[in-house]
Design brief:
Layout: E1 2-6, H1 14-30, E2 34-38, H2 65-71, E3 81-84, H3 95-103, H4 112-119, H5 121-130, E4 138-142, H6 151-158, E5 163-167, E6 177-179, H7 182-192, E7 198-203, E8 208-215, E9 218-219, E10 223-227, H8 234-238, E11 243-246, H9 253-269, E12 275-282, E13 288-294, H10 304-311, H11 316-328
Parallel strand pairs: 1-2, 1-3
Antiparallel strand pairs: 4-7, 5-6, 5-7, 8-9, 8-10, 8-12, 10-11, 12-13
Helix pairs in contact: 1-11
Length: about 325
């Protein structure tokens, strides 16, 4: 097949997307596909040298309007499939999915509504909670509010400290802050609102950091993340040696079954297709709380879905092939 590998983009997760796409590119070519890397942020001015797609310095100026120009170009006339290696806003939120559907181009991963819903962390929590999936309590602060002076008291009234404050529609733990005191709250909200129109203020759940990859509706082995710095933030996720990964995560069988069941329930609640990664916290009492759903999870050498797949006996190349075949069907 002739596959367009969409990478980069204009979100704060641009660099992560480049790393993800490099791994995917190799797997797709190993499978015998003709692959054309495309960075929608560059529009019609795509690099001539393939290495420029993955360089640290951007090839040319980035623009959201460029997405429309490139998807509407003749370059997509004979494309059989778009493999989405984008992360964050404009790539994982239903935007690029909308353009591709209007173009009539098949693409990997979940559809428009699911992508948009899962990108909105607060709305995801509303939906999965309705379907019986446990999630930490939360409050949302909006960028249009005049000030945020009442939020320390709101936090104390609802769930207390510590709490987590992060952008409502970004991934990779971009601008995530752990707040322990009143004085931490307003700066954390303002930081989160630099990346989103809403800040999610969430109850902090002490315990273990777990994630469950779901592939074709089946939960893969549970993976535990042990960040050496204590918090699984952006640096811990994308710096080699900053976190330890244990898969399958050790736990009682009944707890494992329950968490995997919750993961599949969350996957189905928002209408995910093919694959997603669902993040959890697990307390000392073995009570799980679902944090969020990632519809286009990372595929770098440090990424969690390939590690979980390997634990299930699925190689990286086979994983990519299953994603391709699912999209084609």
């Amino acid at each position: 097949m002739k596959i367009a590998l969409l990478l980069g983009g204009t979100s704060p997760e641009r660099e992560v997307s480049k790393k993800t796409s490099k791994s995917i590119l190799g797997a797709l070519r190993e499978l015998g596909h003709e692959v054309i890397p495309i960075d929608p942020a560059y529009g019609l001015n795509q690099p001539k040298d393939e290495n420029d797609f993955f360089a640290e310095k951007d090839y040319t100026e980035l623009s959201n309007k460029n997405y429309i120009d490139i998807i509407n170009s003749q370059l997509f006339d004979d494309i059989d499939l778009a493999f989405l290696a984008l992360h964050g806003r404009w790539g994982e939120d239903g935007t690029i999915q909308s353009l591709l559907e209007m173009r009539g181009t098949k693409y990997t991963g979940s559809g428009i509504l699911t992508s948009s819903l899962a990108m909105d962390k607060a709305m995801t929590k509303v939906v999965i909670q309705h379907f019986g999936v446990s999630t930490p309590s939360w409050i949302v602060a909006d960028i249009n509010e005049k000030d945020f002076l009442e939020y320390p008291q709101k936090i104390k009234n609802q769930f207390g400290y510590p709490c987590i404050i992060k952008p409502n529609d970004q991934g990779s733990s971009v601008s995530l802050t752990v707040c322990k005191f009143d004085a931490d709250v307003i700066p954390a909200i303002k930081l989160a609102l630099q990346f989103s129109d809403k800040a999610l203020i969430e109850e902090f759940i002490p315990g273990r950091e777990l994630t469950v990859a779901v592939l074709d509706g089946v939960a893969l082995p549970i993976l535990e993340i042990v960040p050496k710095g204590g918090l699984y933030d952006y640096e811990s996720k994308y710096t080699s040696g900053k976190s330890e990964y244990i898969v399958p995560a050790p736990m009682p069988e009944e707890v494992r079954i329950d968490i995997q069941d919750q993961a599949v329930k969350a996957f189905n609640a928002v209408g995910c297709k093919c694959y997603s990664r669902i993040d959890f916290r697990l307390t000392e009492e073995n009570k799980e709380y679902c944090l969020e759903i990632n519809t286009l999870p990372g595929m770098t050498s440090l990424s969690l879905v390939p590690k979980a797949a390997a634990a299930a006996g699925i190689s990286f190349v086979e994983l990519i092939d299953r994603i391709v075949q699912n999209a084609v069907k």
